[in-house]
């Protein structure tokens, strides 16, 4: 008999926020000497629709907007 587990390879593709941490906290960039150095995107960083592909997409757009706004300064 063929076991489906031998043929299906899946992993969870979403994160869960730990107690006391809001999803939006995960989107706070690392700033050094007044400049953004590291940014975070991905479904887990969206405050409302985490665990979704749309949340992941919107988080990428949020961070690209952040880059553009930072360049304008
Ligand atoms: C079975 C299943 C069904 C789903 N169905 C739906 C659905 O119907 N609708 C919906 O909206 N959402 C669905 N989701 C959730 C959706 O897939 C995720 O929310 C979305 O893919 C998250 O996108 P992401 O870019 O944040 O993360 P991911 O898609 O997980 O991308 C993260 C990437 O980073 C890479 N990576 C990880 N660590 C490292 C590292 N150290 N160095 C370099 N690369 C690294 C990974 O390989 C991966 O490619 C489903 C999820 C699963 C598991």
UniProtKB/TrEMBL annotation:
Pfam families: Amino_oxidase. It comes from the Eukaryota. InterPro entries: Amino_oxidase, FAD/NAD-bd_sf. Residues 12-68 form the Amine oxidase domain. One of its GO terms (molecular function) is oxidoreductase activity. This is Amine oxidase domain-containing protein.
């Amino acid at each position: 008999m063929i076991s489906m587990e031998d043929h299906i390879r899946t992993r969870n593709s979403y994160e869960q926020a730990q107690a006391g941490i809001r999803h939006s906290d995960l989107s706070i960039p690392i700033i050094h000497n007044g400049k953004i150095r590291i940014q975070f995107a991905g479904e887990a960083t969206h405050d409302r629709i985490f665990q979704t592909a749309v949340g992941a997409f919107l988080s990428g757009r949020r961070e690209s907007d952040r880059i553009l706004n930072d360049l304008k300064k």
